[in-house]
């Protein structure tokens, strides 16, 4: 039995309020493309087919998905495919979940230069974990990193989630070094290293002219503020002990978007109310809701999921395979029974189902704007 269909749809908010959003705020081309994709997803604008029962004559249109990575309706299937692919590569060891968050003072720069700041954040997190792995464990870790940019009320809050192996392949490649405690590295040490590496990365970017809107004095003031800030936050949870739990947990993060339709509680001409966390809710004007939503559109071609260390190794006989050989064999995953996805009989009368082409724009909600 499937999940009930959400009562409200973000696509309806886009169709109803996109014009007002564009009249009040400057929208980039990538953001426009995302809004168009969301508004067209699973409508006849993208094509589809019509299922018709030859017995009772019931019709059921099925529309194609937009497959945009920012669309709240297109991530469940992509998430499961990702989990299945990663299941072949994950090591049978404990994994730590860690979250790395830079101070709020960096957010305005990240909004203006997302690709540069996000890339610097990825490299800084990877670098500090590699450094600590080499110095503390004498080993190479396996890392999977995921960028998120939102809070539960859709405010801009870039941070990186990391799943790190509880240990790693010894530098000489002869054994697997296990962590014997419930934390990988001290969070304060990781926070200091994150600050140092990010500041170095920002200085390099500034020397290359990456922030032309900042004068030399303004950049120095920003750097002094970041250097003095203590809230380079690193959060670490207790390790997962089973690799399948790691995949299920991480899968929720890898393909999560800012908000899902299921969190919408009430939508009207002048308000959108949705669940946040701890039983609380937030209410925004629809234009403000869309403005916050598109803050989290990633730059074109930017990869929000990255693998490093042992998990970056894809070559036969590489580091990942070497580490796996040194670990006890994991139990084979239980295969789910095959699910019939091409039913040919009507659930109402048992008649035969025919699939017919669906004419473009048939039975489709109106579109307010095409992709610019």
Secondary-structure topology with pairs:
Layout: H1 10-24, H2 29-40, E1 48-53, E2 59-63, H3 75-87, E3 95-101, H4 107-112, H5 114-137, E4 139-140, E5 142-150, E6 156-165, E7 167-170, E8 176-178, H6 187-207, H7 216-228, E9 233-236, H8 243-254, E10 264-268, E11 271-275, E12 281-284, H9 286-294, E13 305-309, H10 319-325, E14 353-357
Antiparallel strand pairs: 1-2, 1-14, 3-6, 3-9, 4-7, 5-6, 5-13, 7-8, 10-11, 11-12
Helix pairs in contact: 1-2, 1-9, 3-8, 5-6, 6-7
What is the 3D shape?
A: globular
Question: Into which percent range does the helicity of residues fall?
Answer: 25-40%
Strand order of the largest sheet: 9-3-6-5-13
Mean pLDDT: 86
Rg estimate, integer Å: 24 Å
**CATH class categorisation of the largest domain:** Alpha Beta
CATH topology of the largest domain: Replication Protein E1, Chain: A
Structural class: alpha+beta
Distance separating the two termini: 40 Å
What oligomeric state best describes the polypeptide chains here?
single chain
Reading the helices and strands in chain order gives HHEEHEHHEEEEEHHEHEEEHEHE
Largest sheet: 5 strands, antiparallel
CATH architecture verdict of the largest domain? 3-Layer(aba) Sandwich
